[in-house]
Amino acid sequence: MGDLVNLIGNVGFPIAVSIYLLVRIEGKMEILTQSINNLSNVINDVKKNSK
């Protein structure tokens, strides 16, 4: 039983921290993706209007 508690303490905490960080970063990545797509659309519009 002590080995199981030790294993959870050594492995469970890093897994929990990793999941927390991935969830936090996911929302920011979605916003960044939308911003890049919007920038790409604006650049394409500028190219079309300059011709």
TrEMBL record:
It holds the Pfam family YvrJ. The keyword Membrane applies. Keywords: Membrane, Transmembrane, Transmembrane helix. The chain crosses the membrane at residues 6-23. It comes from the Bacteria. This is YvrJ family protein. It comes from Clostridium scatologenes.
